[in-house]
Amino acid sequence: MSPLIIALDFAQPEPALALAKLLGPERCHFKIGKELFTRSGPALVEEMVEQGFDVFLDLKYHDIPNTVAQACLAAADLGVWMINVHALGGRKMLLAAREALDKCSKPPLLVAVTILTSLERVDLYGVGLHGTLEDNVLRLARLSHACSLDGVVCSPHEIAAVRQAVGTDFKLVTPGIRPASHPQNDQKRVMTPAQALKLGANYLVIGRPVTAAPNPLQALLEIEASIGAT
Ligand code: C5P
């Protein structure tokens, strides 16, 4: 199974679907986030699932346990492959999400966001989270693991420490990936696909290096070649 998740960061469903079709359902997974979902609704998700695409519905649920559990069930009903929640929602919320999905016949993978990579230590302090970024990431990764989630989203530079904290049977999903030859865009701390996989990532979220490439299929093929996945 491919480790690549292509982020469909489009405002409208048509270019998102066109790109997914160009790359094909066999090559990789596809991430639908808040903007595209808020504009196009579940219809696009259902259409993609219907056409055999693996969809990661990146809506980062964070609410009271019952609400998150019901949202997870609604996502599972759409037939998506992966969903996520905020680990900061706490143990009860994580367990409620897990228990809800355990009742599904074909549950999506359930992963948690630890600390958003847009936050710095001073931001954490402002919301009452003390300690270093890494302390917080590791605490939330351990909590997610203890609540039997399937994995966490983490930055490439957290892969090694998180992997060491939670062992091998836990998926690490990593954005901030750039092929060696590609500009960083607004990503601050990037890593190549091969480096991230070597450190222990299971899935790589890649957007603009593919979606904004003059030839997206060629860009994807080059990334596959760089990780020996052709
Ligand atoms: O275009 P690019 O490869 O930077 O896109 C990365 C994708 O991963 C985007 O959908 C972005 O929202 C998401 N993401 C990220 N950094 C995080 C978490 C998610 O770039 N820390």
Structure summarized in a few sentences:
This protein has 230 residues and is of the alpha/beta class. It contains eleven helices and eight strands.
How would you characterize the overall build of this protein?
- By secondary structure, the chain is of the alpha/beta class.
- The chain has one domain: TIM Barrel, CATH 3.20.20.70.
- It has eleven helices and eight strands.
- The chain has an eight-stranded parallel beta barrel with strand order 1-2-3-4-5-6-7-8, surrounded by seven helices.
- α4 runs parallel beside α5 and α7 packs parallel to α8.
- The longest helix has 14 residues.
- 41% of the residues are buried.
- The mean pLDDT is 96.
- The site of cytidine-5'-monophosphate has 14 residues, from β8.
- Cytidine-5'-monophosphate binds next to β8.
Write the layout of secondary structure elements.
Layout: E1 4-7, H1 13-23, E2 29-32, H2 34-40, H3 42-50, E3 55-61, H4 65-78, E4 82-86, H5 91-102, E5 109-113, H6 121-126, H7 133-146, E6 151-153, H8 159-166, E7 171-174, H9 193-199, E8 203-206, H10 208-211, H11 216-226
Parallel strand pairs: 1-2, 1-8, 2-3, 3-4, 4-5, 5-6, 6-7, 7-8
Helix pairs in contact: 4-5, 7-8
The structure holds cytidine-5'-monophosphate.
